[in-house]
Write a structure and sequence with these properties.
Layout (H helix, E strand, L loop, with lengths): L6 E5 L7 H11 L3 E6 L2 H10 L7 E4 L5 H14 L5 E4 L18 H26 L4 E7 L11 H21 L4 E8 L13 H11 L8 H12 L10 E4 L9
Parallel strand pairs: 1-2, 1-4, 2-3, 4-5, 5-6, 6-7
Helix pairs in contact: 1-7, 3-4, 4-5
The structure holds nicotinamide-adenine-dinucleotide.
Amino acid sequence: MLLEGKTGLIMGVANKRSIAWGIANALNQAGARLVLTYQSERLGENVRDLAPSLNNPLLIQCDVSSDEQIQTMVQQVTAEIGHLDFLVHALAFAPREALSGAYSETKREDFKIALDVSAYSLVTVAHALMPLMQGRQSSIITLTYLGSERVVQGYNVMGVAKAALESSVRYLANDLGPHGIRVNAISSGPIKTLASSGVGGISNMIRLHAERAPLRKAVELDEVGDTALFLACPMSRGITGEVIYVDGGYHILGV
Ligand SMILES: NC(=O)c1ccc[n+]([C@@H]2O[C@H](COP(=O)([O-])OP(=O)(O)OC[C@H]3O[C@@H](n4cnc5c(N)ncnc54)[C@H](O)[C@@H]3O)[C@@H](O)[C@H]2O)c1
């Protein structure tokens, strides 16, 4: 029960395949009380169906492209709980047409949306929740992918957004460290989810990964969940500003 008595917020559950849901299960089993946020009323139905398997979670709608919704969410967490020991940011979005064809054809509006939802949201949510997290040895965790540093066909503007996200992790770690808040990213190998199905050829990526990764297997949700547990609990108290790969070692490969 590494998180007994701890409370944290997890953003990004869409359904039972979501990485956020894998993390929610791991942190719930470790004894944490959870707040789950979901993007829309439609996805809220899925989250309400899943929630009974957790220990008394608080559910709040929050679309991160709306400053107003972020503010309302923070007010609700402040009123109902008053503090947070961890924040898991497991959300991203890019318009579908930006995830195929040439990256050089990316439209200005699509670029703005992808960077806003997938990278800026971490900055603004971390800032808004800082008063609830400071001085508690708390931990912020976000989700990234190798497409930030290597070219992955079809990942396009999302790779650029993930590069901005990883850089934000380092800047936020430096800003928030003096307040007792650590900030890290998990770089997961490919997993079939709602979001990853928008990237062309996800099934092929998973197959290639299982064939070639040093561990010769596809990445499982619970592997990401357990790494999030490590990053959320005091066992990782000396680590901040880091990207930890949960990819069976795939990123170490050359040709
Ligand atoms: N699945 C993979 O292969 C993989 C690999 C590495 C990293 N990731 C990252 O993991 C994270 C979770 O994605 P997933 O694969 O579990 O897919 P998912 O579709 O289950 O989750 C993505 C979530 O983002 C949310 N979201 C999108 N726009 C939003 C907005 N404006 N406001 C609030 N929420 C919004 C969606 O509602 C959804 O819950 C993402 O950051 C993704 O890039 C995924």
